[in-house]
Amino acid sequence: MMRDELDRALICIPIVAKDDDEIISQAKKIVEKNKSARIDIAEFRADYYSGLNNYGMLENLLSRIHIILNNAGIRFLFTIRSHEEGGEKLSFTSPTVNEINLYVAQNELSDYIDVEHFSEKDSANRVITAAKEHNIKIILSSHDFEKTPSIDEMVERYKDMQERQTDIIKLAVMPHKEQDVDNLLEAVSLTYQTYPDIQIVGISMGELGRRTRIEGYKYGSYLTFAIIDKASAPGQVSVDEL
User: Fold this and answer.
1) Annotation says 89 is catalytic
2) pTM, whole model, 2 decimals?
3) Options 170, 176, 177, 230, the catalytic residue
4) Is 205 domain-assigned?
5) pLDDT tens, residue by residue, 106-130
6) Rounded to 5°, angle at Cα 9 from 211 and 33
7) Domain total of the chain
8) 211: Cβ–Cβ under 8 A, 6 or more apart, which residues?
């Protein structure tokens, strides 16, 4: 079932780079593009950043990004995507991803933090608790780069995620046929009908799933990801198309 209540999805643009200068350059480019396009959120994909495990470097960089974006009315999402869910493989084991996320939350260095649903639960819950204390929103995410589960499985995944009481729940899956794309949109719609007060994101990845990024909001999907230059996931479309 399609939904009519949502006027459009929020649009999020990724920042994907390894060094400070290029990251700041991309943030400024997003601000400039926002003058002609509607951009709501910028996502810093920190798993690409070479200084991620250096808290001093990280805090300085995030503070600069936060100011640049917020001055333009754009909210800031901090994401460390795990290698298992499509991110860059990190060159260090300490601090852990959720220890870094906790540091970002406690120091109020972003407006949103992405926490993976299947990351270590105790440390993830500490991030979620700290985020609430510091008025930072959590996107609880789950990515399957292998397949699209059944509709029932995806609805059940959303149900499990919403029970953790975060602000946004996001599921991204890989389609192999058009029916997979239809199934993802149906799972979003069913979840939206069941939990109308929860912000839901549903993405079918790759070229096959492009329409979920463009018209997913009609089924209840709250947020979509687009690009100016560099994509952070397969199938992302240009912000100008949205």
Assistant:
1) no
2) 0.94
3) 170
4) yes
5) 999 999 999 999 999 999 999 999 9
6) 95
7) 1
8) 181
